[in-house]
Here is the input.
Amino acid sequence: MSTNELQKYIFEILGNNFDRELSFQIDNPSERYFWYRKRKQVANLIKKNIALFSKPDNNEQEYLFVDVGCGEGLDIFLLRDLFEKLQINNYRFLGLDGFPLSYEIAKAKKEYFGKPNIDFALVDLTQKLALENDSVDVIYCSEVVEHLITPENLLNEFRRVLKSGGYLILTTPNEPNLLQKAFWVSSAKEKVKLVVKNRINNPIKVTIEEKELCLYDHISCRKANQWDKTLSSIGFDLVDYRRGALIYGARDFENWDFVLGFRFLLEGILDLLPKSLTRQISDQMITLYKLKDK
Ligand SMILES: C[S@@+](CC[C@H](N)C(=O)[O-])C[C@H]1O[C@@H](n2cnc3c(N)ncnc32)[C@H](O)[C@@H]1O
Here is the structure.
């Protein structure tokens, strides 16, 4: 099926329900909340730090925002619209991903929504990024680094392509978080090691420009403070953060509305506490870093 045919096919089937339909693929309330909360908290983080993203209008100069591992582009379209709503109109948006179907869907969405300042590219994130040194103003990388065998390579690429003083918004699991640690007996640790080994041995294989790329499930999970240390050693300062959802899903419990209700009540209570106290409890970190001067 050619790209054009595929795009036509996606639109004919989904039309206006494009994004809604995709979000229904996760039919479990806790998991849907996890993704909803991530997007809401990223938007809050940007709104709170809006001054950092506002750029002077200089001879129609465009600033570059790159969503690394953008998937089907849900976030990049939302963030583009958020910037527009915040009256920041001098950015160009670029989404990079290595999964060919996601790339086709993202391109189809661009055509469907008619947004001129968004582009997409199919890339292998384990290779050098096809971006000039010091060319990017903001990198958004959400739920991607945990899928890489050596996330440091990509984080070093971020340092290369970002301008001095550029910003990185990183979201990734915070694991093992305090809640998980409560159940973190040695047998659980061994089980996790086996699961990771199995994932490394069973990637999804795709082809980009005749080269094979292996896509992995979660294989590099770390705690938020470990990510902070890694980022600091590469040259990033922590600027601000938000708390992601307490847990990803609770499939075993979700048939009981009482338990589900309690889970959401707990999220509300945690939101009343200082974020410095609750960051380590949550299952996801959402952090804004600034690249030091090079
Ligand atoms: C969990 S999804 C996150 C998608 C999106 N950022 C979001 O938050 O909805 C992880 C994405 O990273 C991409 N990815 C993982 N490893 C990659 C690699 N080595 N090269 C290119 N893309 C990769 C996958 O194709 C997938 O779209």
About this structure: The chain has one domain: 19-291. The longest strand covers residues 162-173.
